[in-house]
C-alpha cells in the first residue's frame, strides 16, 4: 500500500526545485551537466516504491529523463549469497538477502558511474521468486539511455551510515529488542560491511527519508502487504512468518535510523494509516 497520493506532490516539487537550481548553476559555470541523484529511504511497507514510481511519472511529465532503480536490484547473486551464508554459518543477519553485506556494491557503483558519465547502461533487476523465494539476480535488465536528468535510488537502508564499534556495543548492550537476539560480533560484521555503502551514498545530491511515526507500524504494514499478496497470488507468508521476517531487519533500524537524521534533506513522517503527519524541509530539521 502506498503513501496517500498527495505526498507525491511535495516530494516532486522538492526534487524539481533542486534540479532547476543545479541546472542553472551548471549553466552559469559552463560545466558538463550531470544528472541530479536523489536517494530515497523508507522502511518495508511504507510505500516508498510506489511513491518513487509516482514521483518519476510527475517528473517525466515535465519532459525530464528519469532513471529509477532500487538497492533491492543489486542484491548478491544466489551463488554469492549462499557463499556468504556458508562462510558465516552462525550469523543469521547475513544468512539471507536483506542487510548490509548482502548487496553487490561494486555493481551498483558501476551503474552509477555510467549514469553520471551520461553513458548508456543497463540497470539490474532482482528476481525474488527464484530458488523458491531465496532470490537471484535476474537475467533481464532494464536498458537506459542518456541524456539523464534525474536519478532516483530507493531502498530500505539507503543512507544508513557505519557507526563506531564502541557506539554499536553501547546500543547493543542497551537493547531489549531484536538487536539483542544477535551476538555482538555478528552485529559488528554488518556494521563493518556498511562502511562500503558510503561510496553509493556519496553520489547523492539529496536524501529523502520516509519514516514511521512508530517503528512497530512496519510489522502491520508488511503484514498488510502479505495479505494483499495472498489475495492476488494465492500464497504467501503467515503472520508469524512476516513477524520473523521483519525481526531480521529491526537490528539495523535500531542501530542506524539515527544516522539518517544527520544527513537527510527532507523527512516525511507517516502515521499508522500511512498518512503524512509531518514534513520537514531543509534547514528546518
From TrEMBL:
InterPro entries: P-loop_NTPase, PRK/URK
The keyword Membrane belongs to this UniProt entry's keyword annotation: no
UniProt keyword annotations, A-Z: ATP-binding, Cytoplasm, Kinase, Nucleotide-binding, Nucleus, Transferase
Gene3D superfamilies in the cross-refs: P-loop containing nucleotide triphosphate hydrolases
Subcellular location: Cytoplasm; Nucleus
UniProt xrefs under PANTHER family: URIDINE KINASE (PTHR10285)
Gene Ontology MF annotations: ATP binding; kinase activity
Record-level GO cellular component terms: cytoplasm; nucleus
Phosphoribulokinase/uridine kinase domain ranges (all copies): 37-130
Domain of life: Eukaryota
UniProt keyword Transferase present: yes
Pfam families, alphabetized: PRK
Family in the record: Belongs to the GLYK kinase family.
Principal location: cytoplasm
Protein name: Tda10p
Name of the coding gene: TDA10
Amino acid at each position: 500500500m502506498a503513501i496517500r497520493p498527495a505526498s507525491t506532490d511535495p516530494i516532486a516539487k522538492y526534487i524539481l526545485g533542486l534540479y532547476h537550481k543545479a541546472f542553472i548553476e551548471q549553466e552559469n559555470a559552463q560545466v558538463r551537466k550531470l544528472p541530479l541523484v536523489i536517494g530515497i529511504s523508507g522502511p518495508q511497507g511504507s510505500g516508498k516504491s510506489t511513491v518513487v514510481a509516482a514521483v518519476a511519472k510527475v517528473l517525466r511529465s515535465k519532459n525530464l529523463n528519469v532513471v529509477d532503480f532500487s538497492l533491492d536490484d543489486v542484491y548478491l547473486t544466489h551463488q554469492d549469497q549462499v557463499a556468504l551464508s556458508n562462510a558465516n554459518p552462525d550469523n543469521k543477519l547475513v544468512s539471507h538477502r536483506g542487510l548490509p553485506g548482502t548487496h553487490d556494491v561494486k555493481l551498483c557503483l558501476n551503474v552509477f558511474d555510467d549514469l553520471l558519465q551520461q553513458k548508456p547502461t543497463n540497470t539490474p533487476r532482482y528476481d525474488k521468486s527464484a530458488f523458491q523465494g531465496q532470490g537471484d539476480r535476474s537475467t533481464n535488465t532494464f536498458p537506459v539511455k542518456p541524456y539523464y536528468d534525474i536519478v532516483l535510488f530507493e531502498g530500505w537502508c539507503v543512507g544508513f551510515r557505519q557507526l563506531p564499534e564502541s557506539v554499536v556495543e553501547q546500543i547493543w548492550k542497551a537493547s531489549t529488542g531484536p538487536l539483542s537476539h544477535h551476538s555482538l560480533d555478528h552485529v559488528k560484521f554488518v556494521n563493518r560491511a556498511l562502511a562500503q555503502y558510503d561510496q553509493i551514498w556519496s553520489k547523492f545530491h539529496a536524501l529523502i527519508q520516509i519514516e514511521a511515526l512508530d517503528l512497530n507500524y512496519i510489522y502491520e504494514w508488511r503484514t498488510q502487504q502479505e495479505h494483499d499478496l495472498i489475495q492476488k497470488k494465492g500464497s504467501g507468508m503467515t503472520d508469524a512468518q512476516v513477524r520473523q521476517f521483519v525481526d531480521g531487519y529491526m537490528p539495523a533500524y535500531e542501530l542506524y535510523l539515527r544516522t539518517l537524521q544527520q544527513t537527510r534533506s527532507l523527512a516525511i513522517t507517516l502515521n499508522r494509516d500511512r498518512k503524512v503527519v509531518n514534513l520537514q524541509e531543509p534547514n528546518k530539521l
